[in-house]
Hints:
By secondary structure, this protein is of the alpha/beta class. It is about 35% helix and about 15% strand. The radius of gyration is 17 Å and the shape is globular.
Amino acid sequence: MSDLWTKFLDLLYPPRCVFCRSLLREGEKDACGRCRAVLPVAEGKLCEQTGEFFDRCLSPFYYDGLVRESFHRYKFDGFRWYAPAYGRWMSDCLRDYLNEPLDLVTWAPLSRNRLRKRGYDQARLLAHEAAASLGLEETPLLEKAVDTPAQSGLEGADKRRANVLGVYGLRAGADVQGKRVLLVDDIVTTGSTLSECARVLKDGGAERVICLTLARGVRE
Length: 220
């Protein structure tokens, strides 16, 4: 997109902070200075989790405060245009803390029924932005055959693990043999969804599964 076209769009639709929705000042991008100063950033070892089947999971934020409020608008209120900003933070986090090559990007998909109701797959939008930023191929590898209750409504790792057990599968024709896969989702708490998706990928022959999410569970 040319600089002239970008400036024209900015005149029609002035860029706003994805957290407080205030108009951004010149030189600001995605978030205003006030919000950046108080964002619940996960830095260093705190941005990383490990799981039962995935190798690492990186997240730039905690799922708290302004991030939680912003994400609710993105996921439930149709603010899908937040995805590019989220994708930039996620990609920067991966570059900062991962020093190994990856082959392709995929995501933890919604069921067909949930996708039809929502109108878009929030994890797929994040995967698309991350893939473009990182220069990797975006590939649909997984499908969710069963429309299970939302993980956010379940308490405890055991219930969340049981809720997703066996509900994901490899898409027909998906080739993951020997691949190093970047698996994208929106939020990670217990890691049950990512672990189940990673299990399917590794059962299909994937060599490594690195996960990337916008945010991780709330700080204790």
